[in-house]
Write a structure and sequence with these properties.
Blueprint: H1 2-76, H2 86-95, H3 100-158
């Protein structure tokens, strides 16, 4: 009789230890899942912030380009109707200048504007490339983290 009680006690303790071990493993997995979720949320927030900044920059540059184009149209008074020969319109504008100095001044302004727009375009292209690189790296890190998390879960399930 004492032997049955000892055997029963031993089995009970063994089961309790197993339950405790499984509870600890489950707690660990839940914590890892929560950490992975928090990490993914942080990356998502960073991505959204960066994307919003890029959209704002793009909008600002588009507005600047539109403003410059409108100013150019206003200054030059070029007729933009369909079928207008742009070369003829430009030649007419050039003919309106009274002196070489006026023409040179206009040419300098147009070249400066072109240079500014080229710099703005180059900067936007560089920013875009940098953003793409950063987001690609972040996405790769998130995928690696997820893969490690899944591998850890599979390893734990095997145990």
């Amino acid at each position: 009789m004492t032997e049955n009680i000892d055997n029963s006690t031993h089995l009970t303790q063994k089961w309790l230890a197993e339950i405790q071990s499984l509870t600890q493993q489950m707690t660990k997995f839940q914590r890892e899942r929560d950490e992975a979720w928090e990490s993914s949320q942080k990356w998502r927030q960073l991505y959204n912030t960066e994307a919003e900044q890029r959209r704002a920059d793009t909008k600002m540059h588009q507005e600047a380009i539109a403003s410059v184009k409108a100013e150019e149209q206003k200054f030059l008074g070029v007729n933009t109707e369909i079928g207008t020969d742009s070369t003829t319109a430009i030649q007419q504008q050039i003919a309106q200048f009274n002196s070489i100095e006026e023409l040179q001044t206009q040419l300098v302004e147009v070249i400066q504007e072109r240079d500014y727009l080229l710099q703005a375009l180059k900067l936007e292209q560089e920013n875009h490339a940098q953003t793409r690189k950063g987001l690609t790296t972040a996405l790769g890190d998130a995928i690696d983290s997820l893969a490690r998390s899944r591998a850890d879960r599979k390893d734990a399930e095997v145990l």
